[in-house]
Amino acid sequence: MQTDEDGKAPSVGGFILLGFPKTQVHLEALRDHGIQFDRVLNFGDLREEAEDIGKEVIDRMTKESMHYDWEAEQAKVTKVLEVTKEFLGEEAEKVLDINATGPIDNVWIRIRQAIDPFFLRVDNPEEVRVTADIGEPDDENYQPLPKGDFGDFCPVTYSNENWLIRGSAEFEATVYGKTYWFSGEKELEEFKFNPSKFLTGFGGAKSLPLAPPPPKIMIIGSKGSGITT
Asked: How many Å apart are CA 105 and CA 77, to the nearest integer?
């Protein structure tokens, strides 16, 4: 690597190092050249309570007809993490764990959440007003919360299944102070994982004004009542 007069590396733009550095020597070489990291992403099967931890990673490697020792690989990664955190010192919080199991699109969203400060997220409920805070309509200081584009209806059910299902304050999230209700815990968690998928103006498939789903109607009645007519 070419260096300038003071021995430092010339100014560089963004970069990604894959699987490097691995040793203290590598890290010291980076430090000597004035190279620092914004984030260190630790990829792997990092689920804490799953019974099949490591299975997906092992299956990936064996499909490539490669010998793969899961325990040995985990030991290597643990050593690299220890060295890296020691190198970072007070900035060890830059090391972020990324669960790399499941669909690749989900992994990509986890990466964006980790490194992109502008990636859309739901509000921290401890920092915003929620339905439980506003009291009853007859309270003197009652002030309703602003609703999102879906009103009281669940945006996940609408987007995924084309049904209008009224949500509940029990399953609630806010984005930029606007309130969204969901039909259940599953829908709430899916929204919280990637809210931009469901919101208009943030890359979601839906646009304003929202159109109601196509009607799904069943008609019953006795003969002669005019059903077929």
From this structure: 24
The single residue listed with the structure tokens 């609630």 is: 172
The set of residues, in sequence order, having a beta carbon less than 8 Å from that of 36 and lying 6+ positions away, is 30
Tens of pLDDT, residue by residue over 6-38, are: 666 556 677 788 877 777 788 888 878 777 788
SS3 state at 147 = strand
Q: Which residues contact 184 (CB under 8 A, 6 or more apart)?
A: 171
Backbone angles phi, psi at 71, to 5 degrees: -65, -40
Residues 63 and 166: their CA atoms lie apart, in Å, by: 45
Contact 123, 176 (CB under 8 A): yes
- Give the separation between CA 196 and CA 183, rounded to whole angstroms: 18
The alpha-helical segments, DSSP class H, found in the chain are: 24-32, 55-63, 70-88, 104-115, 155-161, 185-193
* Residue pLDDT, tens place only, 163-221: 889 999 999 999 998 999 999 999 999 999 999 888 876 666 566 566 777 777 787 88
What residues pair up with 95 in beta bridges, in sequence order? 40
Cα 20-47-176 angle, rounded to 5 deg: 90
Q: What is the pLDDT of residues 123-159, one digit of tens each?
A: 998 888 888 777 777 777 777 788 988 889 999 998 8
Burial class (CB in 10 A: 0-12, 13-18, 19+), 43: middle
